[in-house]
């Protein structure tokens, strides 16, 4: 589903095992999807296997939906297929129950612009639907009433269709990833270091990308790297970045490509993470990962997000990780110091910045330079030929050239990534062989 819901009225619901239910995030998610939140229902109790909430609370929920003339009930919890069915039977006619993950998929569907993002959303939707199709088949065999309320109409071939579609989408995503991996290798061979921004939604990754990027250089290199996106939104809303945005930055002597990726989200089920894992390949295959966190959040929130982020990254990531404490413009220095100390085991030696105000971005750039793979120094002696000039030009484009002496021979000294040094040696060997 990709339509917005600006005219639809929604009641948000949240159940917690203990403590007090906080509905701020689910309200933000509902608004991000375009719903108008007109009420809420919360409950503190263990999960009811049949209705998720207690049956009495479901009755009060149905009354609330009728009173507010709402069309949708949005749970900040995961509902099982049978729970969705049972709750749907209790709601006023025409009202539907949507859980947290169905809502997230709606938002993803609205924001997906590229073919890859659209495929990932479709894959996640199919994985979400599969157990519900199985539940509808089970209900049909028990001769339950048609319609299945929140589960939708029954189609006996739907299960097989879903499985076939999932297989086809996986194949297409694998093909796209092979193409993107080839591009990453081309970038490295062109002398670029690859830096990825990771972290939760609204941590400020897109804003930080704009601070690091050299916008004009992206445009100048459009033909060389046609997949570079020259825009990176930095709105204060959830899931602004669904795909990836890559921009060029000059960090010390280095040419760096910085990629902003889809934000992590709390409490995502395995099937949803799995659907979007190809988006994270930009992180897994980077030379350095900047893990961005919102330092204005509580220590408990930051700690929980760091743990989850590390779990996600360490599964396949091999690059060093630098934690960036962003949004220092909204907290004082003492609070930053206190949080830095409290989080030192999870985030050793973090860099504190404000992407919005540009504070301390120079220190971050210096840290990026220090953490990226070391450059190698090289000195080549080349014969003086017409072909040599093109090799010298290539080295200028792909390395940091220190000196070039032109005489009977050309002597060039430079620093570069090991792969570029290796390529330059091969080119030099070809020149020497051709002039012999």
From TrEMBL:
InterPro entries: G_HFLX_dom, GTP-bd, GTP-bd_M, GTPase_HflX, GTPase_HflX_N, GTPase_HflX_N_sf, P-loop_NTPase
Cofactor(s) recorded in Swiss-Prot or TrEMBL: Mg(2+)
Keyword Cytoplasm: yes
Top-level lineage group: Archaea
Subcellular location: Cytoplasm
Residues bound to GTP: 199-206, 260-263, 326-329, 354-356
Predominant location category: cytoplasm
Keywords linked to the UniProt accession: Coiled coil, Cytoplasm, GTP-binding, Magnesium, Metal-binding, Nucleotide-binding
Pfam family, one: MMR_HSR1
Residues of the Hflx-type G domain: 193-376
Coiled-coil parts of chain: 109-189
Chain residues that bind Mg(2+): 206, 241
GO cellular component annotations of the record: cytoplasm
A GO molecular-function annotation: GTPase activity
Keyword Transcription: no
Subunit relationships: Monomer. Associates with the 50S ribosomal subunit.
Protein family: Belongs to the TRAFAC class OBG-HflX-like GTPase superfamily. HflX GTPase family.
Job of this protein: GTPase that associates with the 50S ribosomal subunit and may have a role during protein synthesis or ribosome biogenesis.
Name assigned to this protein: GTPase HflX
Organism whose genome encodes this protein: Haloarcula limicola
